[in-house]
Design a protein that fits this description.
The complex is a heterodimer.
Chain A lengths: L2 E4 L4 E4 L4 E3 L1 E4 L5 E7 L5 E7 L5 E4 L2 E4 L9 E3 L8 E8 L7 E3 L3 E6 L1
Parallel strand pairs in A: 2-12
Antiparallel strand pairs in A: 1-4, 3-9, 5-6, 5-10, 7-8, 8-9, 10-11, 10-12
Chain B lengths: L4 E3 L2 E4 L5 E6 L6 E7 L6 E7 L2 E4 L8 E4 L6 E5 L8 E8 L9 E2 L3 E5 L1
Parallel strand pairs in B: 2-11
Antiparallel strand pairs in B: 1-3, 3-8, 4-5, 4-9, 5-6, 7-8, 9-10, 9-11
The chains are: A mainly beta, B mainly beta.
Chain lengths: 113, 115
C-alpha cells in the first residue's frame, strides 16, 4: 500500500540555520505530494505541493522538489525563524481510487533564537 | 473565505459514554473528510464523503463510530461507546472536488480525552 516515511524528530536548530526534513514515499503510479504544517493547538495548514515529477513546490521560503527517481520530497529552507517552530507532515495523495491523504508521522521542529 | 469550522474544541468524557463532533466545510466544497490524529502520529483517514455519499470508510471502526452528511454540507461524527484508545484529535477537512492534486483544508480539530 501507499506509505510515507519522514525523518525522525524532534529537530532543534538555531535561528537562520539551514533546514532539511527528509521525506520518502512508496506508492503506485504518480501520486501528488504535499507538506502540511501544524502549529500548536491548530489544525493542519497546507505549506506546499507538487503534482508531478520534477515539480518544485514553494511557499514562505520553504521548497520541496518531487523526485521520482529517489521517491523523495524533502523539505528545505535556507534560513529558519523562531516562527517556523511547528510540526511538519509529509503526505501523498494517490491518483487512482478514493482520493485520501496518507501522512508521515510528523517531524517536530523547534527554532531557538 | 471562511475556513473549516469544527466544534467543540475540547471534550472530556468517561469510557463507554457517547460523544458527537460537528464540522462545517468551506462553502462549495463537495468532499469532506474526517481524520483521527493520535498524539505523536500523523492523521489517519476515518471516512470520506463526496457530497452526501460515502466514498471511503474502510478505516472507520463501524462497531462504535458513525458519521453522516445528510444534506451534503455539514457533517457529524459520533462515537458510541467510547474507549480509552479513542483519545485523539479529530480533524475535519474539505476539498473542492476530491481530485488527488487538490489540497485539503483542515479545521482546528476537536481534542477528545477519555477518562
Amino acid at each position: 500500500g501507499n506509505s510515507v516515511t519522514q525523518m525522525e524528530g524532534p529537530v532543534t536548530l538555531s535561528e537562520e540555520a539551514f533546514l532539511t526534513i527528509n521525506c520518502t514515499y512508496t506508492a503506485t503510479g504518480y501520486p501528488s505530494l504535499f507538506w502540511y504544517v501544524q502549529y500548536p493547538g491548530e489544525g493542519l495548514q497546507l505549506l506546499l505541493k507538487a503534482t508531478k515529477a520534477d515539480d518544485k513546490g514553494s511557499n514562505k521560503g520553504f521548497e520541496a522538489t518531487y523526485r521520482k527517481e529517489t521517491t523523495s520530497f524533502h523539505l528545505e529552507k535556507g534560513s529558519v525563524q523562531v516562527s517556523d517552530s511547528a510540526v511538519y507532515f509529509c503526505a501523498l495523495s494517490a491518483v487512482q481510487g478514493a482520493q485520501k491523504l496518507v501522512f508521515g508521522q510528523g517531524t517536530r521542529l523547534t527554532i531557538n533564537p | 473565505e471562511a475556513g473549516v469550522a469544527q466544534s467543540p474544541r475540547y471534550k472530556i468524557i468517561e469510557k463507554r459514554q457517547s460523544v458527537a463532533f460537528w464540522c462545517n466545510p468551506i462553502s462549495g466544497h463537495a468532499t469532506l473528510y474526517w481524520y483521527q490524529q493520535i498524539l505523536g502520529q500523523g492523521p489517519k483517514l476515518l471516512i470520506q464523503f463526496q457530497n452526501n455519499g460515502v466514498v471511503d470508510d474502510s478505516q472507520l471502526p463501524k462497531d462504535r463510530f458513525s458519521a453522516e452528511r445528510l444534506k451534503g454540507v455539514d457533517s457529524t461524527l459520533k462515537i458510541q461507546p467510547a474507549k480509552l484508545e479513542d483519545s485523539a484529535v479529530y480533524l475535519c477537512a474539505s476539498s473542492f472536488s476530491g481530485a488527488s492534486n487538490q489540497p485539503q483544508h483542515f479545521g482546528d480539530g476537536t481534542r477528545l480525552s477519555i477518562l
